Records
---
Amino acid sequence: MKPNRFLFIAIGVSALAFAFIAASGINKNLVYYWTPTQLRASGGKAYGATIRLGGMVAPGSIRRSGTTGVEFDVQDAGTLVHVRSTGVPPQMFRDNIGVVVEGTMTRGGAFECHRLMVSHNNQYRAPKPGHPVDQQQMEKYIREAK
């Protein structure tokens, strides 16, 4: 076999092996982003897969469990998904706020969450006239910003 031909074959085989390894690694680390309706429609495909579920916290559904855990429902246009989170929720977590939870769907119908993120806008709102400003809190924010 000529040296040039061997080199081209070796490079081709190496490229195919690299592509296969990269593709299989991507599939293992792929995280789907679904709404509650899409999650329910997916059937068995959702069980065991790592999923990011996005929607709104259903009003009146928040229940504290233990010292750090929280259970609540995430909804979209017409579907509810019950979520169990074991971590401490963010300070802004409340009813009717947009959330993205990352975790897995269980066969029991609940979404086991290991990461809870709230969605909020990026606008600063000055204190309303007549409302006192907490001077110590303001100084703390200024120190942390430096």
Note: Residues 1-29 form one domain.
---
Amino acid sequence: MRAYLLPPAARHGFGPSCSLRWALLTLSAGALVVLSGWLLAGLGNTGQLAKGTAALLLWLTCTALVWHWLRALPRGALSWDGATWHAELDGAAQPVALAGSPNVRLDLQSCMLLRARSAQGTSLWLWVVPGGSHADSFAWAALRRALYCRALAAPVPEGSDNGATPS
């Protein structure tokens, strides 16, 4: 595929958003309400205390793991320069070169969860949301085009007439 068919350069910030925190908090609270209802419905049953304790410990463990994952999400900017992807992590001196294109693991149109591999082989999970300004909507669209483009950069051979076929 010719280089001129590649998406233009794009740069967009990433990191855990307030909406992600609220969604996870709501999910955890909802699970606790369901668990409480289940416990109250079977209060007189034999063995309910052991089951309830195990379920409560499971909920607490899952909530702690999600909270840890949320706090471990990196912050920074994801950039595509037309040839390679880079993650500019907050606090890092140099941008991290990525091995290939980040994989879209979850696309909710208004936010995306991406999995990227650094050139060293480590995985990065990136939570990306559009900004609120008009300029950010263009950056969001450019990022989405770059992420979903499967074209590979290949040099155009010299003497080529840009792919036109002779008539």
Note: Confidence is low (pLDDT under 50) at residues 152-156, 162-167.
